[in-house]
Each structure stands twice: as C-alpha cells, then as structure tokens.
Amino acid sequence: MKSAPRTAALVTGAVVVLVAPVAALKALGDPADPRISVGAPAPATLLPGDVRDTTGRMIANAVWTGLVAYDPATGAPAGAAAESVTSGDRRVWTVRLRPGGVFSDGSPVTARSFTGAWTAVLREGWAGARLIADVARVKGAGHPRPDGVDGLKVTGDRTFEVTLDRPLSGFPALLGDPAFFPMPEGVLRSRDWASYARSPVGNGPMRIAARAGGEVVLRRPGGGRDVVVRAMPDAARQYTAAENGDLDVATLVPPARHGSMDADFGGRHLAVPGRTVTYLVFPGWARRLSSPTARTALSMAVDRSAVTEGVLGHQYSPADSLVAPGILPGHRQGQCRLCVHDTRAAAAALKDAGGLPGPLSLWYQAGAGDDAWVRAVAGQLHGGLGLDARPRPVPDLRGALARREVDGPFAVHATAAYPAPVASLASLLDAAPALPADGSVTGLLAEAREAGTAEDGVIPARLAESALLRDMPAMPLWSAHDHLVWSGRVRGVTADAFTGLRLDRLSVED
C-alpha cells in the first residue's frame, strides 16, 4: 500500500515529462508574435522609383502591383495591373489598365498614376530614371518638361500611350520593374516625396501598416497574417535566428554555414539565380590582347569555383555563359566551354598566341568591393600561366576607359533590366563601351531587341552570345545569387531574380 503514492508520483512525473515537450513544441509552432518574420538588410528607400537594393525591391513588389508580373517558374511576364500592352511596330505602345484598380487609401489607379509617376522618376533623377531613359528610351525622357514627357500621352482614364525612340520588343517585360510602378494622384500633386517614402501607399496585395524600430510591417487587406521585415544586415544573426525558430525566413546565409544548410534546414533552403554577371573585359585598343586565343587562354586559367567558394564566400555561382542564370526565358546553361578551368590547355593556348610578356594589369573600380577576387584571379594567372598579373584599382575606371589609359582586362558588373537574353548581353555592352564587339554582334543584338515578339528575339540573341564566346572579348566570371532558409512553420517561399522573395505568398501551417 505504501507504493501507491510513489506510483502516483511516478505517473504524475511521467505526465509532466510528456506534456513539457508538447508545450514546448506548441510554443515553437505558435509563438507569442504570430506574424511571419523575414530578416533582411534595411532598405535604402521605399520610394518605388528609387529602389536600389534587394530589400527595397522585395517590399515594393508586395506593396505595389506593376503593369506586368513575372512568373517565378518561367520568368515570363504576364499582365498584372495592365489588361493589355500592345504595339504594331514595337515603338509606339498602348497600355490599357484593368478596371477597378485602387490604391490602399481607396483612390483609383488611373493612367495618370503611371505616367505621372514615371515623369516624377525622371524629373527627380531617381534610380529608375536609367531604365526609363536609357533602356526603354521613352521619347523625351532625357529632358522631361514640367508638365510631362513627350513620349507619354494619357488617352483615357485607363489607357495611355508610350512612344519610344527605337523599337523594343522587350518593353512589356521591362514594365515589372519598380521604376514603372504607379503613385496616387495626391502624392503626384503635392510632390511630398519624403512623407510618401516614410509610409508609401501602393496598389498591391499588401500595405504598409507600420514602420518603426527597424521593422516594416506589411498587412493583407483581405486578412491573413502580417509579415514583418526586420532590419538584420548580419547574415550569421539571421541564420541563427531562423535555425532557432526566432525568425521565419532568412535572406542571407553566412559563408561558414553554406555547407550545412541541408543538415540544418533539410529541404527548407533555396538558392535564387541572379541577374548580375561579373566579367573581365578586354579593351579594344589593347593590341597585345587582340588575339582571341590569348583571351581564351586567360579564361581557361581562371578557376572560377575556387574563387566563388573561397574569397567570395559562396555568394556567387561560377559563370558558364554570358547571360545571367536568372534570365529564365531563353537562357542556356553550359555555353561557355572556355570557362572551364584547364591550366594545361590555357598554357598551350597562350603559347600558340605568342605569350603575354611584361606586366598584365587587372583594372577595377577602387572601393567597389572587388579587391579580394581581383587579387585571387591575379594569383591564379601568375600560378597557372606564369604571368606578371597585377591588381590595378583606380578611383575612376570609367574616366580611365574614356582616356584609353586601360591597357589590360577590366572588371565589369552588368545587370539585366528585364528577363530576356538580349537584356543581359545589352547590359554588358552598355557597361563596357571599350568591348571589342564586331558589327555582326551589334547587328544581332539590334535584331533581337527589335524582333516582332520577345520569343522571336531569342535566336539572334543566342547567335550574338555564341559569337562573343568564340572571340571572348569579355570573359564571364560569376553571377550573384540570393540564399533563403526558413523555419518549419512557414509555407509558400517563392523567389526569382527580378522580384525577390514574394512576401505576399508567405503563409504558415495552422
């Protein structure tokens, strides 16, 4: 009989032991803060036309709905705020909006919401002005009038006309960029951009409910859990917080944890191919580098994987084509066979080309964060080919190029403006005016840009890429990519190179 109290105590203890883990799991799965939390560096601004970083782009694509949106699986643009974007000559485009569009403050989305916003971007010189003036080349964008832009004409409450300086088949695909997002009439009249940037009003699936203490809180008007974007620039802190269940999605992964993502998160991690490629470009006036054989020798001598896994900390992927891997429509993997590291073949090719005696300077913009990888590449060229390769940082690389002072390969970072192969190749040529491309390449790119449809432009763009890879006037090195890891309770993690993490698609398992 004396054992009865003891037995009861043991049973009670067992119940406590069993209940404690259940309570702990419940606390983990249903935290005191029910919001979905995302860690990211703080955005530079929330003005859509001035977005210039990944966090700003991510938030903008939740707060606004552009004329088109990108399919995360295919990268293809599809109508969003626009009912149609049509043209008979790829130069004059008619945009018709879907009926019933409203901003989160209840004001209507009209044609002027877009044309007025684009005019403001140009007039204020925001980051998006380059896309409107230099990529789309809207007529008169370089000299906007006080009352508008020559190439923008409102033809109805829901329709407007855009005239470009030259045909551009990719114009509809370009319209998904935040540079082309709308703004309410009241803001366009007041021009109080500072107040608007603090608490912007958009027409998207989410609205900004609060912004304080390094947090941006996004709310779904139709209901559902809020999403809070927390300013966490430190990758290690983000990763640990997600691992511990204190953060739902981390948008940065520290180099030291790259190899353990699968062990730490199972299948809950994702690498998002990017749209920016780093190249070494050979100036057309450098006669000692005019031989394609010598240029291909340098390309084969670079061990891209060693650099991306070393000094670049797994934040980049080795390039295997000239086109960024985030360009899903029309991108081809493995096009750059001469990007494969082969020291023996590189040495033989350099010998056939007559060698490269004397110093070989690798030019790059000082202060742009390129020092470590340029030193690594110089070391590989020295170790593999015996070249006297020397890093050459300069305070004004563009000025040195204009004065033709650059006598060796120079670093270029080129970002595609929209998802098409021609956009990636055109950004390379625009960023590297000294690139020795022949007329056939520029002709093919013009054909791709002016094709009847975006699909028709893929073949000439591929031919241009093949021609460039054959002569190697620019050797692709690597492309940036984003990392995502997330907790077990979150669902719907989706991202692409042009939109970033889709905040409006995040949910939790109830």
From TrEMBL:
<protein>
    <submittedName>
        <fullName>ABC transporter substrate-binding protein</fullName>
    </submittedName>
</protein>
<feature type="domain" description="Solute-binding protein family 5">
    <location>
        <begin position="79"/>
        <end position="422"/>
    </location>
</feature>
<feature type="signal peptide">
    <location>
        <begin position="1"/>
        <end position="26"/>
    </location>
</feature>
<dbReference type="Pfam" id="PF00496">
    <property type="entry name" value="SBP_bac_5"/>
</dbReference>
<dbReference type="InterPro" id="IPR000914">
    <property type="entry name" value="SBP_5_dom"/>
</dbReference>
<keyword id="KW-0732">Signal</keyword>
<dbReference type="InterPro" id="IPR039424">
    <property type="entry name" value="SBP_5"/>
</dbReference>
